Amino acid sequence: MSASCVGLNDLPDEILMIILKKLNNIEVFYSLQGVNQRLDRIIRDSIFTSCLTFIQRSLHDFIDVLSCDTILGRFCLQILPEIHDKIARLDLESSSMKHVLSAAAYPNLYVLGLYNINEESIQCLFVGKIFLF
Fold this sequence. Notes:
By secondary structure, the protein is an alpha/beta fold. The protein contains 7 helices and 5 strands; from the N terminus they run ααααβββαβαβα.
């Protein structure tokens, strides 16, 4: 039996979806967005775009997964403007909250989770806004 080398692009879309669903959506976007048209189409599926969690839970706190300015910048300048209308839920940590929320309009956003945020930041963010609860 001869050895064969199968690459990521050789896999059917269904298998790629199964693999990618096991990964963090943020990492999937950051790693695969812009690689090729096929991967762009796959990662723009609602499975990956509807809920973006920019935090990880540590033992006593929530950690921002966009703590690196390069990653945050790419998300805010390239990725979020392209998928903004598909996002239904965002989970954010206070340090990246302002950048992510101002990167695009989120017309289908129904859930906004804010972590490690103080009362003063909440007041500045929501003053003059009308929300339905």
